[in-house]
């Protein structure tokens, strides 16, 4: 079991606190009484710069997958003894390396409601061109587009887990015909969730709105590529609030630019933060948000509350074995 040295004081780094709310989202007093906490609001993608920043710290607090911690980074941080991560799992932390190096890793609870809600915000904003119309108002203009009514259209849900099943129920409430497919989904499981199962080829060809709700894995990486996009209707919309690499980004950019599909609502990208000058920042048929599916009041309170409790437990020497 890893425990902090009693002297000097334990140092804790809170990374990627973009909104500057880390210290106000929970009661940190059980930690700050015994440790010094430093927050960083900027993001470092350069590995050498990240290692230099983290070298003086015993504990690193990471928000979801904003900053990856692979073996190449962990092996260069001999002082690091604990990683507190928000969410129940963090695929960007090399858990095997952490265990080998004696670094304790903790997780937190969470909430899926905020991602479900953002999914529907993107569906509605993309189908009704809300960003363009809002900009028109701001610029002194008036009506500039014709929206798409969702009633009696087909909602295709790719992945019918905790998030996808809730998205599907809302689609039914909008009067949509909800269909689903994934590599493990069966017709019986789809029926139990109140939706129709379609085989893969029919699924992509049928959906008017296709929304992605899969975990990123080797099986799901690049699952939606040029062939899948070409199979979709030219009027179809693609919504992704899951993980960017599930959709082949280059193929998506080509499909949007050439009119293979009508538009996309995206909260996730291959590289985050999305680089300046990236085409998905400015394409007129894209409604983009900066990975904010989980960025809401209730999830943040849960994340920070549970993470502070885990750090306090580790400081007490009561944490479980590393990893």
Classification by helices and strands = alpha/beta
Instruction: Name the CATH homologous superfamily of the largest domain.
Output: NAD(P)-binding Rossmann-like Domain
What separation lies between the terminal Cα atoms?
Answer: 10 Å
Q: Average pLDDT across residues?
A: 95
At a glance:
The protein is an alpha/beta fold and 323 residues long.
Describe what this molecule looks like in 3D.
The chain is of the alpha/beta class and 323 residues long. It has 2 domains: 121 residues, Rossmann fold, CATH 3.40.50; 176 residues, NAD(P)-binding Rossmann-like Domain (Rossmann fold, 3-Layer(aba) Sandwich). It contains 12 helices and 12 strands. The strands form 2 sheets. Strands 8-7-6-9-10-11-12 form a 7-stranded parallel sheet, sandwiched between helices. A 5-stranded parallel sheet has the order 2-1-3-4-5. Helix 4 links the parallel strand 4 and strand 5. Helix 5 crosses helix 7. The longest helix is centred in the last third of the chain and has 19 residues. The protein is elongated, with a radius of gyration of 22 Å. The N terminus is likely disordered. Keywords: NAD, Oxidoreductase. This is 2-hydroxyacid dehydrogenase.
